[in-house]
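Write out the bound-state structure for inosinic acid.
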Amino acid sequence: MPVAILVGGQWGDEGKGKVIDILAGSTDMVIRSQGGNNAGHTVVHDGVTHKFHLIPSGILFPNCLCVIGNGTVLDPRVLLQEIDALHDQGIDTNHLVISDRAHMIMPYHPVFDRLEEEARGDDRLGTTFRGIGPAYSDKIRRIGFRIGDLTKPRFMEKKLNFVLRLKNEILRDLYHTDEFNEKEILDEYTAIGERLASYIQDIFPMVQDALQEDQNILLEGAQGALLDLDFGTYPYVTSSSPTAGGALTGSGIPPREVDTTIGVFKAYTSRVGYGPMPTELDEVEGDVLRELGAEFGTTTGRARRVGWFDGAVARYSAMLNGVDSVALTKLDVLSQYETLQVCTGYFHKGEYHRFPMSNISHLKHSEPVYEELPGWQTSIADAKTWEDLPENCQRYVERLGELIGAPCDIISVGPSREQTIFRHRPY
Ligand code: IMP
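---
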């Protein structure tokens, strides 16, 4: 059962792109199972930096079939740009496959995303404005368009006629803004459909055959467990399920086929957008860590909020996802600290909590319990083995593993592939 699920253990941006790039070399198929171009994976491959939003990072390996699964929402305009950029760099995309069941971000979705955020005022979520929430809402409302619909122009036309009536009424009467033109959308999307046609197929038979043949399959998660619709800090979450459970529904793989779940955790915490983050550092200390970690978003360029490692968040997401193995990233960023704080739980109104509470107001007003660990104050960027890491650094990693409840098998000490320590190959 060589199926591995890779999930983000925190609020996204854990450095999943690099881990996927490392694992994809020995993988037959990578399936992206949820989210859309709200995600951004930075991969440094053969000295070249690539930024992916939709296409699985495995695309850099010609023998790895890269699948955009049914659980995603994809903006076909962005997808084409990403395909064109890869072609410009001489990278072949013949091994890219798109599930015909994946939903499309339509031109009105980013517009609604922005209008809704503005209407929320002080209670805004801090979305990426990519139209993710509106596209998933339409999927649930059964007024969404699937990418397979691009090959059925008559169906598109009939349905768009109905859907645009709903959308335009809201744009006109509620938001007093421009309406969308049916013909313009149809013309543009039909042309895009022709260009994407060779990539689109029903992936179910292909995925089931791969399972039968015992191929290595990696389910690539985007975002992170704390942005999960059900288990994240709702409503400050994304609109999909970036958990191990979501990876299965987003790809059509049954639970019994899963061999291992890899959780990717940053050696500290970051988050973009609003919502509670108990270990967030104040502005001055935060600026230092933000600069050290270059914590600015791949997708939006926004400065990320940063803080100490939150062991309660990590414990929660490891249990939620059934994490067997940990990939710990950006450990090198902490090298200059004399001491490091690690949160082990919270107090709220005198009561101890070992997990983030579902009530986000309680979480926001909770007091983190910190444990202080000595820093190592020396560069680890050239470390190749576990033994190369200073003792205090090893202690820090071991303590995080204890808090997470799974071994730190992969340790990343810099952006390039070579700056990776394997204590054990999880997959
Ligand atoms: P949306 O996914 O654009 O609707 O944004 C909802 C929340 O999820 C916002 O706080 C975003 O900043 C956050 N978010 C969405 N995608 C990512 C990601 O890939 N990394 C980190 N945060 C994300």
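---
Residues 276 and 364 are 5 Å apart (CA to CA).
The chain has a mean pLDDT of 95.
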